Each structure stands twice: as structure tokens, then as C-alpha cells.
Amino acid sequence: MTDNEYLESKAWPFVEARDLLKKRKKLLEKKGYALFQTGYGPSGLPHIGTFGEVCRTTMVIQAFQKISNIPVKLFTFSDDMDGLRKVPENISNKKILEDNLHKPLTSVPDPFGKFASFGEHNNQMLQSFLDKFGFSYEFKSSTVLYKSGIFDEALKLVLRKYDEIMSVILPTLGEERKKSYSPFLPVCPETGKVLEVAVLEKDIQNGEIVYESNGKKFKTKVIGGHCKLQWKVDWAMRWHALEVDFEMYGKDLIPSAELSQQICKILGHVPPNGFYYELFLDEKGEKISKSKGNGISIEDWLKYASPESLALYMYQNPQRAKKLYPQVIPKAVDEYLSFLEKFPDQPMKEQLGNPVWHVHNGNPPKEKSVISFGVLLNLVSVSNASSEDVLWKFVKNFSPDLDRSKHPILEGLITNAIAYFNDHVKIHKKYRQANELETKALLELIEEIKKMPGSLTPEEIQTIVFSVGKNYYPKEELRNWFKAIYEVVFGDEQGPRMGSFICFFGKQETVDLITKSLNRN
Q1: Which 3 state secondary structure label does DSSP give 85?
Q2: CATH 1.10.10.350 residue window(s) in the chain
Q3: Are 239 and 272 in contact (CB under 8 A)?
Q4: What is the tens place of the pLDDT at every residue in 259-295?
Q5: Cβ count within 10 A of residue 38
Q6: 392: closest CA among 377, 378, 402, 382?
Q7: CATH number of the domain located at residue range(s) 430-521 in this protein
Q8: Would the CA dihedral through 212, 217, 221, 224 be positive or negative?
């Protein structure tokens, strides 16, 4: 591909990469690299939305590397010095957390008993997951950066710019909150808790503040991990101290990002390029939350589908709200297979707009698609297959010469289909009896299948199924013909493309299946 094609691609990662280069080229060249950052609040177990932010940022990095020779870095930052504000709903052994509320997450004991702290446990879970996907990143801990002194100069600067920062933040707060607000959150030397208290005195020369807690006055340094910043100020300070060039955030954080950008400018730094993404929702349309544990987990998606299908789901329409629950998986898998199949025959311009280019950094696998995930699910359903070998036999019906060892994607699909069917399809099956019209149509379909020569393609078989339906349904009601097949034969309102299904399942097997369905009480 030529540089010109990269520079003209309308795929959103290329749009963001070009904008970053346009706005910050001189800054990047002076610094010698472009720094991308993602943020994670380890107050709850990592969820799929956290992965989405790293995945999407990586897609922008990949595009940036095609249009520029400037080196790149990706920091995955954990705000693990934040105080634990509430106990997550999806955590057992809650008492340990209840007894340590408001302490920094890296000071809260691990309720799972595996790591030194709750924050460390969640950080390790996040890194372990990101490593499975092969992301290239540097993990950064807020606690480490605060306590090691890396943020010290920036924290002193925040103290010097205290009044300017307050003049930006206070107008955004309610009257009661204004009374206790301070950019600095001291860690109480007696309780170990992160305090939200007003600053009574500032000693800029010595880098100290005075505050009151439980009727006592305390003086503390703002550096060395004795204080943490309120997160909007913290976000801006981080951009300044680390010289961040690009960061994504959820749509709900747009007002916070705008405020942090103002503070970043007060600190004398050009705010990074930003990109907002829409929120992930559960099946009820509610925002996915780490503390609630609603929606689908990372582990669940990988139980039922490939990591690549998840990456594709993250690529598509990032600025549109998306539901993220198990029922979206089959469609995501089949869309991945469809885009993968199209890729080799597309012109370069279209390849750059194909999601699999971004999922695989321009080098998607060349395995030819054999069967859709939807058809596999139906094969599992009608055959009650619990072993992969049974499904491979159906695949061999359609493609006798297929070499199983050369189809790792298909191998994974078969394993995933059995797991998904058992957990999410089987319990919802609801068969109904055919009415008189449907019975006549299905009996005719049986006879047509019996007459089919063995050489017919899935498309030719689909045409025959279509023709049978036209004998019983007006053209505008043909959808009801296929709906009848699905509800009577498959026990579902939706089903496979019948031409493909019959090819895989077999003609006689399909005849037996329909006959059994008509005789079902």
C-alpha cells in the first residue's frame, strides 16, 4: 500500500492518527516519540470496556505507524492510589473491603488472598488479560509514580498554580462541595484513608499544606505519596508530567476531559489529542459497571468466541452505544468471518476500511471460511452434538477433502459453538407445532429435498427452499415461511440459511429432522 492511501483512508483510526500528527508533529519530533495513554480504575475487577480502550488505542497506534516514523509508546495507567469508595457488588468476602473503605486501593487487603492488596490483584488481572492479546504496553501504577517521586515536580507546580486551578474547578461544583474541595487529597497518617478536606494553609516554598481532620490539624508534604490529587486534576497533572499525546475516554467523561484540558494548560502543557467513545450497555440498556459486574465478562466472550471477534466488535462504530451481552456474540463472530473472507479480493482502499485490517494490523489470516457460526449453532442444536468430532463429520459432508489441521479458525468455532449452545441457546428453545398450511409446505419441502442431486450448491438448494415457500405464501409474506421452518424445526424465531444448513447436515438427515418435527407433540 502507498503512503497516499494511508493518508486518505476514512477508517477512524487513520483519521485520528492523521489528526494527531497534524496537531502535534513538532512536539513529537522534539520529544522523540508519541505517547498514547489508557486509564484504568482498579476499584473493581477489569471488564471488557477496559479492554476496549486498550484495543482501540492500539488500532490508532497501528495507523500512526503507517503514516509516521516517529516511535510510539503506550502507557496503561492504573489509578490504584485512589481511595476505595464503595464495595463492588460482584466481590465475595466483602467485610475485608468494608473495613478498609477510603484507603488507597494498594493499601486495601486482597479479598481473594492472592496479592498484597486489592489494587495489585486487579492490576495483575488487567495485565494478564492484555498479555493474552499480545498488546505492546508499559504498565504504570499511580501508587508507584506518586511514591517514587516521579510526580513530585508536577505536584509542586499544582501547588504553585493552586488558585488558578481552583478558579476553574469551583464554578463546576455545588455550594456544599465548594466548602470542602481541594485539588489535594491527603493520606491521613493516623487512619491511612484518603481524605477529602479543605486546605487551610499552603506553604509553597516547602511544598506543604495544612488541613483538619476529626478536630485535629495536620501538616503534610504534597509530594512523595503523602497526597493524591482529585482525579480531574490528577488527569491533567499526568498529561503534563508524562507528556501524554493521545488518550481516549468514555462519552460520560467529556465534561471532565474538557476541565482537565483547561488545568493542563494552566500547568503549561498542551493537552493531548482526545477521542471519546460511547458507552457499553448490558441487555437492559444500563451502563456496564466494574462494581456491578453486569454485561458480559472478558472470560465469557473468550469462552464462546475468538479474541479477534471481540476486537472487531470494538472497532465498529466506537462512537455509537453498544450492547455487550452474550446474545451479540454469534453476529460478531459471523461478521468477523465475513470481513475476513472479503479482504483478499478488495482493492487497497477498501482493505483499509475493512475491520480485519485493524484487528490484524494489516495482515489478517488467509484461512478460507467454510461455515458460519450461526449454522454451526443450528447443527449443534438439531444433532445434540456434545463432541467436536460430530460437528466435524457435518463439515466433511460439505467439504470431504478439507484438511482439519489447516483450519485453526474453524477448529475454534466448533469448540465455541458447543459451549455457546449449551449455555445460551438450549435453555431458550421453544418448539411449536406446524399448522395445516405449514405442514403441507414442509411435506413438499421433504419431497423436494429427496429429489435433490448431490451436486447442488448451497445457493441452488436455497432457491428450491424458496420456491416451495412461494407455492404457499404470497411474495410479501415469504418471511413467514422461513419463520415457520425455524420455529417448528429449530425451536427458535431465527435460524440458518437453509441451503447451507442442508449441505452440512445432509439431505437424509434434514428429511428425518423435518419429519420428526412434524410428528412432535
Answers
A1: coil
A2: 430-521
A3: yes
A4: 999 999 999 999 999 999 998 777 777 776 655 656 6
A5: 26
A6: 402
A7: 1.10.10.350
A8: negative
Check residue 477 and report its DSSP letter. G
Strand partners, 217: 212
What is the pLDDT averaged over residues 136-143? 96
> Which residues face 390 on adjacent strands?
none
Whole-number average pLDDT of the chain? 92
| Fold that domain 3-167+230-281 belongs to in CATH | Rossmann fold (3.40.50)
Q: Reply yes or no on whether the pLDDT at 216 is more than 80.
A: yes
Alpha-helix runs per DSSP H in 384-491 = 388-398, 408-420, 436-451, 458-470, 478-485
Report whether 152 contacts 223 (CB < 8 A): yes
Question: Per the structure block, which three cell numbers stand in for 444?
Answer: 413438499
Least confident of 51-65, 286-300, 435-449: 286-300
Alpha helices (H) along 218-317 = 231-242, 254-266, 298-304, 307-315
Q: What is the pLDDT of residue 291?
A: 53
- Find where cell 431458550 sits: 428
> Among residues 281, 292, 306, which one has the least CA distance to residue 414?
306
**DSSP at 293:** T
The residues that bridge with 34 in the sheet, in sequence order, are 72
Q: What pLDDT does 322 receive?
A: 84
In Å, the largest CA–CA distance within the chain is 94
- The boundaries of every CATH 3.40.50.620 domain in the chain are 3-167+230-281
Is 417 a residue whose pLDDT tops 80? Answer: yes
Nearest one of 117, 187, 182, 181 to 147, comparing CA atoms: 187
384 Rama sector, left if φ>0, alpha if ψ -120 to 50, beta otherwise: left
Assign 91 to helix, strand or coil: coil
Within 13 Å of residue 440, how many CA atoms lie on the same side as its CB? 7
Per-residue burial over 111-147, b if 16 or more Cβ lie within 10 Å, else e, is beeebebbbbbbbbbbbebbeebebebebbbbbebbb
The alpha carbons of the chain give a radius of gyration, in whole angstroms, of 29
Q: Secondary structure of the chain: what % helix, strand, coil (to 5)? A: 55, 10, 35
Reported as a single tens digit per residue, the pLDDT across 295-339 is 677 788 889 999 999 999 999 999 998 888 888 999 999 999 999
